[in-house]
Amino acid sequence: NLFGKQGELFSTVLLTDVKSILTNLGTPSIREIEIPGQYTSRKKPLLEHHIKIVGFDEKILVLQSLRLPKRITIREHDENDYRFLVKVGEDIR
Question: Is there a domain that residue 1 lies in?
C-alpha cells in the first residue's frame, strides 16, 4: 500500500513513487508555475514579483484521515520552502 498502514496518523511517500502522475500534467516548464495564494487585491498583479516553483521536496507526508490529504513542500526561486496540504475530492466553494 503506497499510503501506509491503517491506523497510522501519517506516513511518508517519496516523490519518485508518484512521479508518473506529475509527468502526465503536460506542463512545458515547471518554472512557469507560480506559488498559489499571491493574488491578494483587486489590482493588476505584478507578475515579475511573483514567486515561481523550482521543484518539490522528495518526501510527501500522507495524513491518515478520510481523504488521505498529502502535505507537499514546494521549493521556490526565492530559496524558501512552502508547505501545502493537498486534498482530493473536497468541495472548497
Answer: no
Q: First vs last Cα of the chain: how many Å apart?
A: 31
Which pTM was predicted? 0.62
User: Has residue 69 been placed in a domain?
Assistant: yes
* pLDDT tens-digit series, residues 5-60: 555 566 777 777 766 655 555 555 666 778 888 887 788 888 888 888 888 888 88
Q: Is residue 15 part of a domain?
A: yes
Domain range for 25: 10-86
- Residue 9 burial (CB count, 10 A): 8
Query: Three-state DSSP class for 19?
Result: helix
